[in-house]
Amino acid sequence: MIWKIAKKEFLLNLMTFKFAVGTIVCVVLTAVFMPILVGDYQQRLKDYNENVAANEAELRKVKVYKNITPTVYRPPNVLSVFSEGIDNQLDSSEKIDILAGSNVFLEAEAKGDNSLLSVFPVLDVTLIFKILMSILAILMAYDVISGEREQGTLKLILSNTAARYKVLLGKLVAGLMTLIVPVTASFILCLLILLSSNMVSLTGAQWFRIALMYFASLVFVTAMFNLGLLLSCLSKNSAICLVFGLFLWLLLATILPNASAYIASQLKPIESPEEFSGKVKAVTDRRGSEIKELTKDIKGDGSEAATDAPGAFGHTYYHLCNKSSMDYDRKTYPITEPVKIKYFDKVLGVKEMHLNDLIRQKQFADNIAGGSPIVLYENLMSVLTGTDFGNFKCFKNNVRTYGNEVSDYIRSKTENFALTSYFTPCKEGDYEKVIGVLYKPILEAKDKEKKAKLMEAATKRYEQMLKETPSLDLQDFPEFTYQPQGIRETLQQAISNIGLLIFASILFFALSFVAFLKYDVR
Amino acid sequence: MISQIVRKEILENFLSLRFVLSLLLVILIFAVSGFVFISKHEQQLQDYSKDTNRSLSNLRDQTSRLYRLAINKQEVYRKPKVLALCAEGFEKSIPNHFRFNAFSGDYPQIRVRTNALLFRFCDVDWVFIISLFLSFGALIFAYNSICGEKETGTLRLMLAGSIPRHKVLLGKYLALMFTLGVPILLGILINLIIVTSSENISIDAGQWYKIFVIIIFSFLYLSIFVLLGMFISSRTSRSANSMVILLFLWVGLVILVPSFGRIVSKTFQKVTTQAEMQRRLSELMEQMFQDMLSGKYGENAGSAAPLESGICNPPARARFYNAGIEERNKIMDEHLNQMTAQVVIGRRFTRISPTEIYRQASETITGTGIGRFSELRRQISRYQGDFKEYIRSRDAEDPNSLHLLYDEMYTASLWRTISHKPVDFDTVPKFQELDLALGQSLKLAIWDIGLLALFNLVFFAASFVSFLRYDVR
Fold first, then answer.
1. What is the pTM assigned to this prediction?
2. Residue B99: phi, psi to the nearest 5?
3. N or C: which end of chain B has fewer CB within 10 A?
4. Distance from CA of B275 to the nearest CA of A (A)
5. Which of A81, A274, A121, A250 lies closest to B52 in space, CA to CA?
């Protein structure tokens, strides 16, 4: 009996105007926007590859270990076309600037490529799904019971031997069968477009994630359908049911998520940026005073001299330095650099605490908005695609580990920063030799013309020397590897959201069942 | 006759469930929005006053030496606006912190209490409530205004009389606008009462005018959705079908089109990536270094040795530094302009949706959003010029100074390239953000106003023609 009702309802649904419009809109929007989203992903991947290549090129230019401040990049996530999450919002790169200070021309640094684009809402497949599928589910469900009552067919069905629960189950099965059509069609289309583009290949884990997303989408439309079913069982008039359903949808889709963020920011306030930067400054100030204290007894003889040259990663290095300067730095760096490494880790610790505060606020907002299946679905998709804060934290942890690897590498290569190769490529006596050969004759020359000629020749020779300075051999330099969350961690994180969605779905159906048992069919 | 139709329709609407629901929800949301705005605004004012006082005190500290005043960077924060109550303009995503000295500036930064993890959420301001909630309400009221009467059979009865069709249409339109006007005006009134009851918030005459203009915009905006509803209603014979079409149209216009902005921006305007910017700045530094070595700025431009050593050349060093800073400023300005232009392209495209037109028009009137960011940059650039002139004039009074204005603290201190004399803090120009007057704002919003009116005209004409040809049987 259930199957008969389901079949009849399914066929009737397929012929409805709302189903046709809903399915066509879903498929067309997916077909139009998926190539754009994939194109955006490809662009981000291209930028990422360029950045990584540029970073490697800079590494090849490194003349002294002190200049090694590579930038590591978070590779874009191919599944972000399904749900962008925070992928584009937070930093996708981090500079491993442990030892070198910033240069005057490089002080300016902005986060993200164009932060101003945040004025636009995010467009991804989840947006299309969460809005259109939920509306379609409510539209399919709002007149399932009340509509049949108005037409008078409900009393005819129930005057027969069909049990009420069978009628309701039949309608649920039919509704789900109908909604599976646009969900499946859109998913297949998404995958076809994704796979047909260059630069995209999916791993087994990513296929598994896509399968989970498909499952989550089905659970989500079931929950929304059951919500519509519940309203239909509670009302006698399908128009009233529709108005109620749509206002409820509006509350769940727009008002509740925004209000929850609003409330979370009031009840779980985060520190102001100035308070945060004050904490970072306190750490760096402590670093400064510790370095000052440790180096107070190291004194030069006052004859330190050095020539700066532009080095890798926007820094400068001593191309030449005299013996006094060399001795001074050889004594200083083994003391100062370990302190800098220690405090680099401390600053990362402060930043991590701040990030944890942000996560706590976000989770609080999610808890408030957890009553909305739409928010649950959105968060679930973000977790499944790996574009939520979990993966961002993974990136930050990877950066911290890599920072330690880099400092250990430099430490091992420079005998705890004591070798001159840490700060200069020149050897003892080079400075005096070059100054003696190139610049002394200029100072001694009386004739202005001769002076200019000598100066020109010296400059050319010096430029030649700069070019000939060999780069460091960094064949064994550690490589950065980004290890995103594994599937197990993702499932652990997703389980509560998917559980809540299933619970909401069952709850709405159970309530509909109770309401339908008491429903006056006349 | 029109008044009779209007009266009947209004009474009918007032007694409907949808009106009661809309009224209650709208009032509730406006009231909550008012309370939340007060606490948020007070927090913002507190943060702003703390930040501004700190930066003013830093500025005061620098006045002990003119060169320090010129070279140390001062900070300017965007002031929280009361009219953000109407249209917040996504300001939490727009940089509010500017750091600069007389020669150059850093990238503007976002220094507000904002959680990047909650980026998907926007503030529940008037524009949000009206553009989302009430536009939806307008469709819920209008979807069966024509076809609903046809289904119940009352339309043919009405038209069997001597009443012309345009009067029926006009009557229904006016009644719908009046019905929607009640929740809006009541909501806004309650919101304003709540907000003005706060001690820290005061609204001046100019702001009241602006609020009035935004209310007019709101009516123009809702009128578009009412007319759209009537148009679709007079194109369909079943109200259920009309509802389905309108729902999908609403989703498209209100939710999807604004989301396309980012994609359109990225597709049609490329912005240099941060990594590329860093590379350009590195290349600039290398180029400058090469030029300096080749003597482009004069001999010994690279030397910062003491004056008495004789191997330094302050004017050459000034040329070297000023050329570097000028190039750097050019690269950064170009990049910031690119970033703004990228957003503007997306915003222009999204104007195919009345929601975005309404949002952008309201932001222009309240002086919030991306327009304010560009305006602030302009004002800061002007102020930087004035500030540099001030430094130049005070420096000229010191005979011991070398009168070489450039951005290097070490040699300014060592060589006295800029005066070391103290200056009176009160004479130092301070940055003050200027609000645009209503007339100027209206001028900027003229395209948006025109588009709002055009949408109204188009949908009115469309619904009029459709209704004239409507088969009432």
1. 0.85
2. -130, 125
3. C
4. 6
5. A274
Q: Which residues of A touch B363 (CB under 8 A)?
A: none
Using the Cβ of A240 and the Cβ atoms of chain B, whether some distance falls under 8 Å is answered with yes
Question: Which of A152, A229, A245 is closest to B244 using CA atoms?
Answer: A245
Of A110, A128, A135, the CB nearest to B247: A135
Nearest-CA distance from B203 to chain A in Å? 23
Q: Please indicate whether, in this complex, the C-beta atoms of B275 and A71 are within 8 angstroms of each other.
A: yes
Q: In DSSP terms, which residues pair with A320 in a beta bridge?
A: A307
Closest alpha carbon within chain B to A106: B281
Cβ separation of A86 and B119 shorter than 8 Å?
yes
Question: What are the backbone angles phi and psi of residue A88, rounded to the nearest 5°?
Answer: -95, -5
In whole angstroms, what is the distance from residue B409 CA to residue A225 CA?
68
Q: Residues near B327 by Cβ (< 8 Å), separated by ≥ 6?
A: B284, B288
- Tell me, rounded to whole angstroms, the distance of Cα B137 from its chain centroid: 26
Question: CB under 8 Å to A516, separation ≥6 — which residues?
Answer: A145, A164, A167, A168, A233
Statement: residue A112 has pLDDT above 60 = no
Closest CA to A379 of A482, A484, A500: A500
Q: Which of A109, A246, A362 is closest, CB to CB, to B115?
A: A362
Question: Cβ of A103 under 8 Å from any chain B Cβ?
Answer: yes
Partner-chain contact B274 A112, CB within 8 Å = yes
For A477, the 3-state DSSP assignment is coil
- The domain ranges of chain B are 2-257+354-368+376-396+405-468
Q: Which of residues 286-305 of A touch B (CB under 8 A)?
A: none
- Give the domain ranges of chain A: 2-276+341-409+477-517
Output Rg (C-alpha) for chain A, integer angstroms: 33
pLDDT band at A102 (very low <50, low <70, confident <90, very high): very low
**Cβ–Cβ gap B118/A264 under 8 Å:** yes
Give the SS3 label for residue A318: strand
Q: Quick: pLDDT tens for B450-470.
A: 999 999 999 999 999 999 888
The span from the CA of B360 to the CA of B377, in Å, is: 19
Q: What is the pLDDT along chain B (473 residues), one digit of tens a residue?
A: 778 888 988 998 889 888 998 899 999 999 989 998 998 899 899 999 999 999 999 999 999 999 999 999 999 999 999 999 999 888 888 899 999 999 999 888 888 887 877 766 677 899 999 999 999 999 999 998 899 888 888 888 888 888 888 888 999 999 999 999 999 999 999 999 999 998 888 899 999 999 999 999 999 999 999 999 999 999 998 888 899 899 999 999 998 899 888 888 988 888 887 778 877 887 888 888 888 888 888 888 888 888 877 778 899 999 999 999 999 999 989 999 999 999 999 999 999 999 999 999 999 999 999 999 999 999 999 999 999 999 999 999 999 999 999 999 989 998 999 999 999 999 999 999 998 899 999 999 999 999 999 999 999 999 999 998 888 77
Q: What are phi and psi of A320, to 5 degrees?
A: -135, 140
Provide the strand spans (E) within B47-96.
74-77
Q: What is the DSSP letter of B94?
A: S
Q: Do A115 and B93 touch (CB under 8 A)?
A: yes
A260 touches chain B (CB under 8 A): yes
Q: What are the backbone dihedrals phi and psi of residue A369, each rounded to the nearest 5 degrees, phi first?
A: -85, 0
Q: Which residues of A touch B113 (CB under 8 A)?
A: 265, 269-273
CA distance A299 to A303: 11
SS3 label, residue A380:
helix
Closest Cβ–Cβ partner in B43, B106, B281 for A314? B281
Mean pLDDT of the A66-73 span: 89
Write the DSSP symbol of residue B405. -
